[in-house]
Amino acid sequence: MSDALLELDGVTSGYMGDIDVLRNVSLSIRQGHISGLIGLNGAGKSTLFKTIYGFLKPKSGAIRLHGQDISGREPHTLIDDGLWYIPQESSLFPYLTVEENLLLPLQGRRARYGDVMAARLEDTLQKFPVLREKLRAQAGDLSGGQQKSLEFAKAYMVQPRVCLIDEPSIGLAPKVAMEVFQWIKAFAASGMGILLVDHNVRRVVSMSDHIYVLSLGEITASGAPEDFQGDLHAQVKEWLGITF
Ligand SMILES: Nc1ncnc2c1ncn2[C@@H]1O[C@H](COP(=O)(O)OP(=O)(O)OP(=O)(O)O)[C@@H](O)[C@H]1O
């Protein structure tokens, strides 16, 4: 039996009719591991996230979370089963305060979180101190870096078993981006399984336990980071099928 938390087995998916954006994609995410996904613009990385998280229903193949097939399940039910998604675009409610944004996912799940909500909030504010002084501020009034902190703090509040993270460093100053990568490492160190996409390929390769290369909707290479060291620039071109 596989020890993967999340597993894709031959998944084919797309937005309309007979146009397949993802073709026969198989990958797995293990506890405490970062799986890095790299690919050119338009390769299908965001489509892969949307398919796993239930926004798109696979045409074929299976997506298993803790061994259960979740293909096509509603996103909110996946949260209950320990899956969380930090999308490239904001998932915050801009007119709610920082505190309301943090508590919202837990308030809808009182049976699970009712007893731990206050302690979880305090723990989260210790991990993300910048948010403590902004608790009563509207999320939409925060800077870009603070909003990204809030996205990760929200995930920390829920403490999922698997976290999908799409382009977390895009548009951030280098210092803030470094902080974001530290949070991701801390998430994995706490036992979370991570699927990470970022345009900073060198960073993704250096911090992942396993790499997948997605090219035109197909996984064209995969392996341990050691297999991906050396002349990264030339290798990336080869994996992605770029010839000049
Ligand atoms: N809502 C949609 N409807 C139809 N086609 C879409 C939709 N979203 C994306 N696509 C198409 O699916 C393909 C893959 O796009 P996707 O956004 O998944 O790629 P990506 O690897 O995440 O690229 P990027 O790095 O630019 O975000 C592209 O050809 C894109 O035009």
Automatic annotation (TrEMBL):
Source superkingdom: Bacteria
Output the InterPro entries linked to this UniProt entry: AAA+_ATPase (IPR003593), ABC_transporter-like_ATP-bd (IPR003439), BCAA_Transport_ATP-bd_LivF (IPR052156), P-loop_NTPase (IPR027417)
Sorted keywords for this record are:
Amino-acid transport, ATP-binding, Cell membrane, Membrane, Nucleotide-binding, Transport
**Entry's Gene Ontology BP terms:** L-amino acid transport
Q: Which residues form the ABC transporter domain?
A: 6-241
Q: Which GO terms describe its molecular function?
A: ATP binding; ATP hydrolysis activity; branched-chain amino acid transmembrane transporter activity
Which family would the database say this protein is a member of?
A: Belongs to the ABC transporter superfamily.
Q: What's the protein called, per UniProt? A: ABC transporter ATP-binding protein
Source organism of this protein record: Parapusillimonas granuli
